[in-house]
User: Which sequence fits this backbone?
């Protein structure tokens, strides 16, 4: 039962909270604004670019930011992954068309660079499957380029608590302290040419973002990327899910404990300022001599 007396549609054991649909939507809005303010992600006067994939998290984030009155536009990168990209792009375009005054930028990898993601991965990885590392390089470059060229203050992604906890879990298992030092709700634009990266949903459970999408009627793609099968992050999520089932709040406490340690300077010695310079081809900052990792993909 919700606090208003109506039937609850969601029970959040980790918060000892049960809410009806309308109060849950209000709660998501309030929590998101709280996280934006707490971590100083951006202000209402700044223009935000939301990277959308067609999934529940990114589309829910875009919806929340718009409803809260932020100046939020969307970016979709069509990687050319068979029917998956076509369907996910359709969901994003449908979302944008249903909201007045919303701007959506679509980048077609094939049209701009001559190859789809699978084609590029097969070429540079000599036919091996799982182009995830290539995908990450491409998306990071394109997202930063579009945000920078469009004059946006920040690039927002829909990473939720389950995502952040799984990444942290993997880094802890392998003691990748360098990666841990750089994991945060906000990645400042410390170098000229980079745009600030933010994660407004970093403290919301995946179950909560899914419930928000369903309650507000957001039509999203349910399928995972076909290349995600067997990914270590999914394995780590499964382990954390079992821990959460036994002890509600485990993921949140794990992540918040990490953030407190980070704020206390626990990983300060791992933060090393790398000397960057503009890529000789695209102009984006890189530590590599000459071409950045993205431009090297295209020879």
Assistant:
């Amino acid at each position: 039962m919700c606090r208003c007396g109506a039937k609850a549609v969601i029970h959040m054991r980790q918060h000892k909270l049960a809410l009806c649909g309308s109060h849950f939507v209000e709660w998501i809005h309030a929590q998101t604004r709280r996280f934006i303010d707490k971590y100083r992600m951006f202000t209402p006067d700044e223009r935000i670019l939301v990277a959308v994939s067609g999934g529940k998290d990114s589309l829910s984030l875009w919806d929340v930011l718009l409803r809260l009155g932020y100046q939020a536009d969307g970016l979709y990168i069509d990687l050319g992954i068979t029917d998956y990209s076509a369907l996910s792009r359709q969901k994003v375009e449908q979302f944008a068309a249903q909201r007045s005054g919303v701007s959506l930028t679509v980048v077609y990898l094939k049209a701009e660079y001559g190859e789809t993601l699978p084609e590029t991965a097969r070429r540079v990885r000599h036919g091996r499957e799982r182009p995830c590392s290539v995908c990450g390089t491409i998306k990071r470059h394109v997202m930063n380029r579009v945000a920078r060229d469009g004059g946006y203050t920040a690039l927002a992604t829909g990473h939720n608590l389950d995502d952040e906890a799984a990444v942290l879990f993997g880094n802890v298992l392998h003691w990748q302290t360098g990666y841990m030092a750089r994991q945060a709700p906000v990645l400042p634009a410390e170098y000229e040419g980079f745009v600030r990266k933010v994660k407004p949903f970093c403290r919301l459970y995946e179950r909560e973002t899914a419930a928000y999408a369903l309650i507000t009627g957001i039509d999203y793609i349910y399928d995972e990327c076909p290349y995600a099968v067997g990914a270590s992050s999914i394995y780590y999520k499964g382990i954390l899910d079992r821990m959460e089932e036994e002890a509600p709040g485990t993921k949140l406490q794990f992540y918040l404990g990490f953030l407190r340690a980070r704020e206390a300077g626990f990983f300060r010695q791992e933060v090393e300022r790398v000397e960057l310079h503009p890529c000789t081809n695209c102009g984006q900052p890189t530590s590599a001599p000459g071409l950045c990792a993205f431009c090297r993909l295209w020879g």
Summary: Strands lie at 10-12, 17-19, 47-51, 71-78, 104-108, 154-156, 186-187, 196-198, 277-278, 285-286. The mean pLDDT is 92.
